[in-house]
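Design a sequence for this backbone.
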């Protein structure tokens, strides 16, 4: 019998051709809706391999249900949807998709910096709604990005790629990270700062840190109060790193100027989400890595990891030691 592979979202045939040739592949046949938990659990019981999205909770119950399970290949660089400790205990390999998405995610992050600073979404809506009556000196005037200070919290590979873009805008680059990044300091002129100093000095505070127990709720009222009144806050990592209620208050009270958000505490959000009512919020539906090229590269990496593990080899991009 061929090993059973379950893919938790409809992916194009061309992306999974190798799997289809060699394995018994089953797929949740919807592209824009997550597989219901019960179906996911039932499929996992049969599976040797899972190809999952960040919308699937791969918790201990799921992992225990997968009696034959050898690998969970997550189509994301972040893997906070997976109980990695339980996977390691149960001998299940977990893989993610690092590096292939650095540039696309950094592009979107920098686009959020620009869009929030220059009020681009607000301006586009203004034109589309027929409100443009004349050119005027301060019509939708925002803030410059060039020559300002950007503070990057979480200087992993994507953080560094954001910093690289900032050099093109001749920005001063501050970063905060668990460990010093000497390569970013030497190559990009980034300067290490404490979290407090970064918040106090940055014009743009960009959150790129993964979600862990230490980073959950990191951006709370205290953090926003330390930022400049003109500061723009951008989050392209994970929603729960930010206390959304506190962010809302900080924006409404004018403690910071604007926010660009690609991620939210509970996704997806509806149009009644309080942050969406604010003109100075640019909101995206978690599309950091969503270019066609990058999404295909992420699928390819998942497919390679599954094929390697099911043929008894080490995966390319493991996140756990079993
Ligand atoms: C990731 O890879 O973790 C992104 O958030 C999904 O594109």
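Sequence:
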């Amino acid at each position: 019998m061929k090993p059973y592979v379950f893919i938790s979202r409809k992916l194009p045939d061309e992306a999974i051709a190798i799997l289809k040739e060699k394995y018994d592949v089953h797929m949740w046949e919807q592209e824009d809706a997550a597989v219901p938990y019960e179906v996911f659990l039932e499929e996992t019981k049969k599976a040797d391999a899972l190809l999952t999205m960040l919308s699937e909770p791969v918790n201990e119950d799921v992992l225990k249900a997968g009696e034959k399970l050898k690998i969970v290949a997550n189509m994301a660089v972040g893997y906070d949807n997976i109980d990695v400790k339980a996977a390691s205990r149960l001998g299940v390999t977990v893989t993610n998709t690092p590096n292939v998405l650095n540039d696309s995610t950094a592009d979107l992050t920098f686009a959020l910096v620009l869009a929030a600073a220059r009020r681009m979404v607000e301006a586009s809506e203004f034109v589309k709604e027929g409100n443009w009556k004349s050119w005027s000196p301060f019509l939708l005037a925002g803030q410059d990005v060039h020559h300002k200070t950007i503070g990057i919290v979480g200087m992993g590979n994507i953080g560094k790629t954001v910093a690289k873009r900032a050099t093109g805008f001749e920005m001063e680059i501050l970063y905060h990270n668990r460990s010093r990044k000497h390569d970013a300091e030497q190559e990009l002129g980034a300067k290490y700062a404490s979290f407090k100093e970064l918040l106090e000095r940055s014009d743009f505070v960009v959150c790129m840190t993964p979600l862990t127990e230490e980073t959950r709720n990191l951006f709370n009222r205290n953090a926003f109060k330390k930022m400049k009144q003109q500061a723009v806050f951008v989050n392209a990592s994970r929603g729960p790193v930010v206390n959304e209620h506190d962010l809302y208050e900080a924006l409404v009270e004018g403690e910071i100027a604007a926010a660009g958000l690609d991620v939210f505490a509970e996704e997806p959000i509806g149009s009644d989400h309080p942050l969406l009512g604010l003109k100075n919020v640019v909101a995206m539906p978690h599309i950091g890595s969503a270019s066609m090229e990058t999404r295909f590269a992420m699928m390819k990496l998942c497919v390679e990891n599954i094929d390697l593990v099911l043929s008894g080899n080490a995966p390319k991009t493991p996140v756990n030691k079993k």
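The chain is about 35% helix and 15% strand.
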